[in-house]
Design goal:
295 residues, alpha+beta, Rossmann fold, Tumour Suppressor Smad4, eleven-stranded antiparallel beta sheet, four-stranded parallel beta sheet, 10 helices, 15 strands, Diacylglycerol/lipid_kinase, phospholipid metabolism, lipid biosynthesis
Amino acid sequence: MRRALFIYNPIAGNRRVPRELDKIVERFQKNNIFLEIYRISKENEELKTIIKDSKHDMIIASGGDGTLGTISKIIINEKINKPFATLGTGTCNNFTHNIGMPEDLFESIDVISKGKTAKVDVGIVNDKYVFLSSLAGGIFVEASFNADLDLKQKIGPFAYYFKAMSEVANIKSYDIEIRTKEKLYKEKAHLVVVLNGTHLGNFSNVLSKSTIDISDGEMELILVKESNPIELANLFFSILKNENKINSDKIIVLKGNEFDIYCDETINISIDGEKGPSLPMNVKVLEKAIEIFIP
């Protein structure tokens, strides 16, 4: 029987995992995987040591993008050579959507049990902070921090939409400067995003799947240029309806393996949905940095 360290966030999403933990253990055991279970809490000082000293065949994490990002950072920084399994049980689950994991929790367990893996890219900020799916700065980012927890558990990602739309009437733009290896870009913009995949805040069509490869050593940087409230709301709803608006003249898309981002003003920064450091920052792509289970 294979052995796995199973790490779960008990308050992620609708808190389904704590309620169905016995069924989860049963499903893994039926698939010949024995779990040693670790419950994430506010204080997790011993988590790095537990992961580093693990004698298990694999590490499995259950939670939202922030939880998965935290554990992947430990795996990468500590150079742990074990496959990483992800169960997206948070509100948006952008990373598990990007790698094609099923929506159903128990179907995802079956995928993990089949043992197919691949190496994927991750982003690293200032040579310190790791992200699996996205980094974002500007408007709407604060909405992800302030969305009501009870509302998120009841209606999922729509809690973010409602909170974000309440900010449209008070939109603010920033003088943002982007440096790549080839060029310097200066724009008055509302939002800057570095994206590893096609999903952002549960928007599934931010970029066309046919053009995205999360193992190619590059990511996409998206700038939403200064717009009036009506233009911004129309852009927001077009993406919500899965209409690909990436060709809008209000959007700039850059592709590369390193970006330097500057702004003289304070901007809220989100890394996989969690609060990040202040600008300026350097963002690099670590190509095929982590081995994960995939369908």
